[in-house]
Specification:
It contains three helices and no strands. It has 151 residues and is mainly α. The chain has a domain of 84 residues: Flavocytochrome C3, Chain A (Flavocytochrome C3, Chain A, domain 2), CATH 1.10.1130.10.
């Protein structure tokens, strides 16, 4: 039995050693990102894009339950464990004075649905869901259509 296993293993090893490397035509092209940059290359910096100015109106949503888009720049907003710049205008205590939309009451519920006296930790980092609108071109062609009821 040992002899059969030894011969099988030896045959497999010889077979592996005799495999020829692929021809140049068989080598795939280098992998590139959607922005046509080599994946193994240096990371490219994000391009400049124009953000919509705050016009005092809310931006339209494209699907049900979409978090509202932010109609102003947020690139210099500080959001840490101890400070959230968004709450300076959108917190309930300041929204009327700044004429900004208030944070939704859903942001004051924890994962179990219990009401909290302050913003839930899972909703505290606003920019996880709310993003500024830009005129960035799609990376891939698509036929996306807004939900008919939101038109």
């Amino acid at each position: 039995m040992k002899r059969v296993l030894y011969q099988t293993a030896l045959g497999l090893l010889v077979g592996l050693l005799t495999i020829t490397p692929p021809a140049a035509a068989d080598v795939p092209a280098p992998v590139k990102s959607l922005r046509d940059a080599p994946v193994a290359g240096d990371e490219q910096t994000a391009g400049h894009y124009r953000q919509e100015l705050d016009a005092g109106t809310t931006l339209p949503r494209d699907f049900v339950q979409q978090p509202p888009l932010v109609p102003h720049a947020t690139s210099n907003y500080t959001v840490t464990l101890n400070f959230n710049k968004c709450l300076d205008c959108h917190g309930w205590a300041r929204a009327q004075a700044t004429q900004s939309p208030k944070i939704s009451v859903t942001h004051f519920r924890d994962a179990l649905g219990r009401e909290l006296s302050s913003v839930s930790p899972s909703r505290y980092f606003c920019q996880q869901c709310h993003v500024p609108q830009s005129d960035a071109k799609p990376l891939v062609d698509n036929t996306f259509q807004r939900v008919p009821g939101l038109n």
